[in-house]
TrEMBL record:
Its main location: endoplasmic reticulum. It comes from Oryzias sinensis. CDD domains: HemeO. This is Heme oxygenase. The lineage of its organism: Eukaryota, Metazoa, Chordata, Craniata, Vertebrata. Belongs to the heme oxygenase family.
């Protein structure tokens, strides 16, 4: 399996004993691939469209709903408790505000859930019930990724869509994190202090690789979905977000 291959590469690369460094080494190739999906390339070119952003918000809502509900449910688990920062990091309420801004008060009836997003959500639910320590991999890759690139992506979205205010961009804002860099250092320190067996650590590394792959699949399907929705809108003259896939 590709995930096992990537995990083995991390071991042979001797990245050190810190879990955060091992995850970084294990997911290096996957990280590059994630940055080269069509969605991220659109961001890099400053050409993100409103349709792309709406589909992205729909996927992010489903992913973070599953992730944060499982983190909440397992907040006292010894592997989850050290990296449980709902006040500083939780994204669900921000995403709800963004969705309401773009879709209206009945946004829940209009949310599209691509198959790849549903697969991601199911994986989070499964490990939350069976192997909560694996949530560490998803929380780390998602939240630290948001903190690292969120401010830049928010500015690109604001400019590309020609928004007159910051409404609809709540996802990118972390009002309770005064210094993203310092907070990331704290987060890594907490994560590196988690007590895991060698078998559990190997499983977390493999799960981190899987997390990147799931995100890559979501990014690919979002691009395909926006193309299909645009085509169907032209045929049916319906708003794209009312078309169920």
């Amino acid at each position: 399996m590709e995930s096992m291959k990537s995990a083995r590469k991390a071991e042979t690369g001797n990245p050190g004993s810190d879990l955060s460094e091992q995850i970084k080494a294990a997911t290096k190739e996957n990280h590059v691939r994630a940055e080269n999906t069509q969605l991220m390339l659109s961001y890099q070119k400053g050409q993100i469209t409103l349709r792309q952003y709406k589909v992205l918000l729909c996927s992010l809502y489903e992913i973070y709903k599953a992730l944060e509900e499982e983190l909440d449910r397992n907040s006292s688990h010894p592997a989850v408790a050290p990296i449980y920062f709902p006040q500083e990091l939780a994204r669900l309420e921000a995403l709800e505000r963004d969705l309401e801004h773009f879709f209206g008060p009945d946004w829940k009836k209009k949310v599209i859930v691509p198959a790849a997003t549903h697969k991601y959500e199911q994986r989070l639910r499964k490990i939350g019930k069976q192997n909560p320590e694996l949530l560490v991999a998803h929380a780390y890759t998602r939240y630290l990724g948001d903190l690292s690139g969120g401010q830049v992506l928010g500015k690109i979205t604001h400019k590309s869509l020609g928004l007159s205010s910051k409404e609809g961009l709540s996802f990118f804002s972390f009002p309770d994190v005064s210094s993203p860099n310092r907070f990331k250092q704290l987060y890594r320190s907490r994560m590196n202090g988690i007590k895991l067996t060698e078998q559990e650590k190997a499983a977390v590394l493999e799960e981190a690789v899987s997390a990147f792959e799931l995100n890559i699949q979501v990014g690919r399907q979002e691009i395909n979905l926006t193309r299909v929705c645009k085509h169907l809108k032209q045929i049916t003259k319906q708003p794209w977000y009312n078309i169920t896939m």
